[in-house]
Amino acid sequence: MTKSDPLVIFTPSGKRGHFAKGTPVLTAARQLGVDLDSVCGGRGICSRCQITPSYGEFSKHGVTVADNALSEWNAVEERYKSIRGLIDGRRLGCQAKIKGDVVIDVPPESQVHKQVVRKRAEARDITLNPTVRLCYVEVAQPDMHDPSGDLERLIAALQEQWELGEISADLSVLSTLQTRLRKGKWKVTVALHQAADDAPHTILRVWSGFHDAPAYGLAVDVGSTTIAAHLCDLHTGDVVASSGIMNPQIRFGEDLMSRVSYGMMNEGGADEMTAAVRDGLNALFDQITTDAEIDKTLILDTVFVCNPVMHHLLLGIDPYELGQAPFALATSDAIRLKARDLDLNLHPETRAYILPCIAGHVGADAAAVALSEAPDKSDDLVLVVDVGTNAELLLGNRERVLACSSPTGPAFEGAQISSGQRAAPGAIEHVTIDPVTKEPRFQVIGSDLWSDEEGFDAAIATTGVTGICGSGIIELVAEMRMSGIVDGPGLIGTAEQTGTPRCFTDGRTNSYLVWDGSADGGPVITVTNRDIREIQMAKAALYSGARLLMDKFGVDTVDRIVLAGAFGAHISPKHAMVLGMIPDCELDKVTSAGNAAGTGARIALLNRSARAEIEKTVRDIDKVETAIEPRFQEHFVNASNIPNAVDPFPILSTIVTLPDVTFNTGGGGEGGGRRRRRRG
């Protein structure tokens, strides 16, 4: 190549170089390191190398592109366009040859490392760089004069035609290789796995002839209550299907410590729980591939995130040590396995990657949240709260990131609440209470109508009103506090104190009637003082963890809050703040990230470089163990008040005025409306 040769400029990369006339555009792109896709290696059969040439004068680049800057449209391109269609103005990079100076645009869908756009404005897009790629090759036939094995000739073809380094294959590939080669007349498509950018390649699968069907991957969030999976096309990054199931381990205990105890108290208990979660995963994978109508053997990569107890049980490790100080993990590093090592019924060579754990009770799910929300890249101080049975919290910015966990228990998911239930049609999810009449109005899952609107009864005829889900109980308790039905310490007043007959004596305390469906054979839904106490304990644990991280960071406020987790997506920021779940903050700075752990798993699935990134990030996170922090109990006691006995909520006070009421007739307790500034 000399300066007298045609100049080729690629956009949007801006890479340029001089190439001899007759050089295919794909070859020029490869030599310049331009991100132009190809499976067939330039043979004109995959069409992934589509490009758009531009003609005319380009003063910016200092070139004028003539109409004949590329070779003429050929039969291969015509055949492809007639069969599958080709956007007007596009060419195939392997067929179009350079004849003069030219500016060539590589459209997003033709880029290997394309951006997968995420819907949330504040979220980072995902750069597609999966561990699995497909390569079509033509293999030399065996020769009596130059004896070598079929695998060796396949590897040589891959290295020569795709400029690859070290390549290996396991027995499951060898067992079918010779049949595949001969059936394809020595032309095959190979699925290669590369764990990292500088790692050797491994052959996962071989297809006879040209195979252009997608390879798929699964991003799986193994939670203590639910297991969610996203099936992704590894070429486009698209989520093809998503599904979830209840974690079958629930029968051994709803919270994690119950499961640890089950393993301790029952011989073989840990093995039982491991078998249960693996069976659940196989059932989920069958379901999701059936829904997507794909062959399950096309899934060649999987990524898992889970809390530490689920991490150990998924791997077949007894979580006994996680049930006692110092809460030691068997390993905190990322783990790379084959899916069959986890008894998963996928292709024999399918890989499994489990993200690293952060600490004894801050697991791979929290690492996935850190990857998704990137507090370490934030200019402002962000608190990320993954709300669940065991809440994980991250606080940080570019300066440093802290992490801890808080044992909130299952109350936020409706468990241990008298009328509580999981989110399902018929469950109360949104509530308001009139501060004067104390009358409630609510919405249930499955209907957009409020309970006092015309047509509500007809809208819920199929489901009825069945109970209160997690987001509903948060709003209900906060509304009871705002309307003066509950005082700061968490006591429900009598009918006389509150001015409503909906408050009634219930044993030694009082309860509040939300809905009476008994006339139609439905449930009587109430909030008891025990329910209030359960929510107080859960929210105090959550707030205390956040407050402890803020102490360690040396701050009394945060700039913004991100509520992560499927449950976090349904929490009202105002009600959460009234309850005292989260620190005082501008409401528009409290956002939901949805299932951020699942998103982090998807990022790790689609971008192998992100795996190295999160492994480094986890090593740099400062871990705070709440169980040994002396101020945790102090914060917990203060946070038991609604919203807090000591910490001020000045921003909240500009939005709502909490009634200054006290229902403890014994003279103890403190009015929930009074707030004192936090002492020194």
The whole-number mean of residue pLDDT values reads 89
Largest sheet: 6 strands, mixed
Strand order of the largest sheet: 16-15-14-17-19-18
Number of helices in the DSSP assignment: 17
User: Structural class per helix/strand content?
Assistant: alpha/beta
State the oligomer.
single chain
Q: Could you name the ranges where pLDDT drops below 50 across 5 or more consecutive residues? A: 667-680
Q: Note the overall shape.
A: elongated
Strand content: 15-25%
Q: End-to-end span in angstroms? A: 72 Å
Rounded to the nearest angstrom, the radius of gyration is 30 Å
Share of helix among residues?
A: 25-40%
What would the keywords be for this entry?
680 residues, 6-stranded mixed beta sheet, 17 helices, alpha/beta
Structure description:
The protein contains 17 helices and 31 strands. Helices cover 28% and strands 23% of the residues. The protein has a six-stranded mixed β-sheet with strand order 16-15-14-17-19-18, sandwiched between helices. The protein has 680 residues and is an alpha/beta fold. The longest helix has 25 residues, at 529-553.
How would you concisely characterize the structure shown here?
This protein has 680 residues and is α/β, with parallel strands linked by helices. The strands form eight sheets. It has a six-stranded mixed beta sheet with strand order 16-15-14-17-19-18, with helices on both faces. The chain has a six-stranded mixed beta sheet with strand order 30-29-20-21-22-31, sandwiched between helices.
Architecture blueprint of SSEs:
Layout: E1 7-11, E2 16-18, H1 25-32, E3 50-54, E4 56-58, E5 63-65, H2 75-84, E6 91-92, E7 102-105, E8 115-116, E9 126-127, E10 132-138, H3 150-162, E11 167-169, H4 171-183, E12 187-194, E13 201-208, E14 216-222, E15 226-233, E16 239-246, H5 256-265, H6 269-292, E17 299-306, H7 308-315, E18 335-338, E19 351-354, H8 364-373, E20 382-386, E21 391-396, E22 401-406, E23 427-433, E24 440-444, H9 456-459, E25 467-468, H10 470-482, H11 495-498, E26 503-506, E27 509-516, E28 524-528, H12 529-553, E29 560-564, H13 573-579, E30 590-594, H14 596-606, H15 608-620, E31 622-623, H16 630-639, H17 650-653
Parallel strand pairs: 1-7, 11-13, 14-17, 17-19, 20-29, 22-31, 23-25, 29-30
Antiparallel strand pairs: 1-2, 3-6, 3-7, 4-5, 8-9, 10-12, 12-13, 14-15, 15-16, 18-19, 20-21, 21-22, 23-24, 26-27, 27-28
